[in-house]
Amino acid sequence: MVEIKSYSYQPIRYNEIRLLKFLQDDDGFISAILEAFSVEQPLPEYKSISYTWASHETNTLKPSTLEIDNCPLPILNVLQPFFHTLRAKGILLDGTWWWIDSICMDLSNLQERGQQVQHMQFIYRQAKEVIVWLGESSDDSDLTIDFMKFIHRTIHPQVTVPEIRAMLQQDQYRAQWSGLSNFLSRKWWTRIWTVQEFVVPQSVSFWCGMGDVSRDAVRLAICMADICTSAGVKETPGFTLANNRRRAWILYETSQTQAVTLSLLASAAYFSCMDATDDRDRLYGLMGLAADQSLLRVDYTKNAAQVYLDFAKSFIERYKSLDIICFAATYSAIKGDFPLPSWVPNWKRKNRSPLVIPSMVSQSSQAHIGNYRTERSLDFDPAVRYSASGSTKANYLIEGSALAAKGIIIDTVDGIAGSKHHAMVQTLPANRSDSQSPPASDILTSVCRSLVLDRKDRYLSYAMPTADFVRDFLCLLKRIAAKPSSPEQSTPSELQEWFEKNRSLRIQGRSLEDLVLDTPDPEASGTTAAPNEDEYYHDTFFGRFYDIVVRLSFRLMATRNGRVGMVTKKAAKGDVVCVLFGCSVPVVLRRSEDGDGYTLIGECFLDGFMNGEALDLSDVSEQMLVIM
User: Fold this and answer.
1) What are phi and psi of 261, to 5 degrees?
2) Measured CA distances, 239 to 245, 253, 538 (Å)
3) Core-most of 381, 399, 403, 459, by most CB within 10 Å?
4) What is the DSSP string of 401-453?
5) What does the alpha-carbon distance between residue 447 and residue 497 come to, in Å, rounded to a whole number?
6) Residue-level pLDDT at 1
7) Ranges of residues in the chain whose predicted pLDDT is under 70
8) Chain CA centroid to CA 171, Å
9) What is the enclosing helix (H) or strand (E) of 221?
10) Exposed / middle / buried, residue 150 (Cβ in 10 Å: 0-12, 13-18, 19+)
């Protein structure tokens, strides 16, 4: 019996890629050729496919094969239905060159795999078309595709939001909206690699069986789902995944012509909820989006922990900034997982995609980080920025997994406000006497600034309008403190719950309730209601409170010296608040049990210390702080 030899890849140079072309012999047998081309020379016109490889349990390189150079190459089972569809559409044998990752790359060669990943952005950007294969058709896929095409034909910039809702929220479209939810819940939307395959190409079409629809139509349908809240699509997990891709596409395309950048750090945070078979790909799979992709070299001989550590080191070195460590509280080590120091974000931690921002250092003015702000906000330059360490650069030394950074310890956490999941931690009985305390109105102004991080909008672009926000803050708290409150003066339940948990919290020796009662009544402005769901900025006091306290789980904090700020949920009494050189915001550290170094707890807002004021303190000194 003659043994059939499997296809063996021929080595290619670092600057080459392979392209695939399908052939048919006289007997109708389908085979293919693989040919190497230099990316430094004009390439033949080619198309690519974006698809999910499926799970290890249901998809291995078995039993399907494709004959190349008279030798069988095992291919993913998921590709067979796509090839059948290509043939049914008359495309398979039309002479088109294809780039299909699992066929055109020798995945067993780790060096080649790393080199090819570095070319991904180029490959997808240069492709004539990228076809997203969502799988075979379902009962409602054709209906949904027709609905998206209808939206694309009908909706234009001059159509108003009320007109859109009147048109698309009719009962006759109930099945279509349900179909869109199913369309966005297909597995393709959950995979990390498919993000760049949606964003980077110049032309993309989505296929479900024989039905197809353009990326432009899909993007507009996602936008309409955002507007048509009663359609119910916006509440589904698939919508968030799809909408973040839409936002990333806007930023990526804008970055081609304007001074707007997509950073690898921001993308890693916004897409941390995605699925990845290989945890290294939580960074590698997003490099094609990033303007700063050179921060990381793809190397599959390193484990995920080393890749994450290398990324943190590279970021600090490139930007002379410690801002990346502020992500480590949200993206923290998982119990029983690979060990990482407390200052290195663990991108394996799958967090729900941030509706607001991943971190305070994601402020819009930070071009080397940034955020996925809305399209219309890109037309305006950010007016403010946090700069807790002034203009200083990071002064640091990294040895092994330890980060020694120069900074200033300002104060110690004393009391922490309670939240839905945490009890209040009371301050010491009298960390400052009444005779030393400033007026109650001044203290509450500081509390108000802290609760909204001294910003008007959720992308941290504009300063808090002090008079308006403080007035609304006091009006709301006085309504709650008045027992009983009148029915016509309702207050948001989230703020009521927060105040009830914290009315006895002492700040500079006085309870929050006493501070409210001792402050003169302000004139109501009429803007104290909950934010309108249609508003992108939610730029009222309560809108910002809801973002910071409810969505981001920040907690109000008072220090031993009576200062006020906000800390992350892991902070505890006795933690120290410090400003590290080269870090835009203060951080909270906890002394290690052996007293030899600190653990990073998270970022911090400290009122009065967000713009370099710590550098002018006379009663503190600079020191090297070792963070383990």
Assistant:
1) -125, 150
2) 10, 21, 20
3) 403
4) TEEEEEEEEEEEEEEE---SSS--BPPPTTSS-GGGPPPHHHHHHHHHHHHTT
5) 17
6) 45
7) 1-4, 54-63, 259, 336, 353-355, 375-377, 379-380, 429-436, 483-489, 523-538
8) 34
9) helix 215-227
10) middle
